[in-house]
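Recap from last week: sequence in, structure out.
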Amino acid sequence: MKKAGFVALIGEPNAGKSTLLNHFVGSKVSIVTHKVQTTRTKIRGIVIADNSQIVFVDTPGLFKPRRRLDRAMVAAAWGGAADADVIVLLIEAHRGLTEGVERILGDLSNSSKNRSVVLAINKIDKVKSPVLLSLTKQLNELFSFSKTFLISADRGFGTKDLKLWLADKMPDGPWFYPEDQIADLPLKMIAADITREKLILRLHQELPYQLTVETENWEDKKDGSVRVDQIIYVSRGGHKGIILGARGETIKSISMAAREELESFLGCRVHLFCQIKVREKWLNEAERYVEMGLDFNDGN
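Predicted structure tokens:
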């Protein structure tokens, strides 16, 4: 008998949720950078394990929101958790029990009744065994987890056991997606996220959170290639100059890196064209939130 269900990956920003999702899927479907708060919406990665289809939901990191966009992202994270059959809470071993983790545990206590919540302590290669054992004990005393896994999402350690345990916990029923589908996300959104990742990796600390990327046009050409037109929205005129760089070298480098990754993902030639537009109020425009897969009203 087949099984199928949803697993939500939650945790603080940079806990390794996107890395774990990409590892399970076997392909890059979610942004991974060293900067926090890069996943903005709920991203579904689809994994087959034994006779189970697991739909993983990579959620934005849970943090104390300050802006409308922050609030919409946190609402999306809890929305993903609310819809899941199983919740996996990822915690960084070397950071331990932070104020943010304590806040998440409190919220889980109020919202996760009748559902399994799994603890996955990630990046275990960064701490010694006694520290790890102490942290495991401390966390399980604070919350009644269904199971605890010690993993390294980056290196793959312990992830197979976690995947098989989750597969066994999925409800009986037909699969939601074809066997060869790895993500439930429009290609236009994947392309926009690839470009946004390259911008984040190239630019300094603050600017990435003041920009968004939208795929305005997607055209399949007769020769099998694809034309992709994108707009990079920034909130200040000075940000446009930073992205352009001297003689346009920065945007050229970013576009080239995004095009190469998109070609690898699609398996065909890609013609990528990026424009930069200044929209001072984009963080308060409902249309921008729709393009990001967020609910504008959740930011109230």
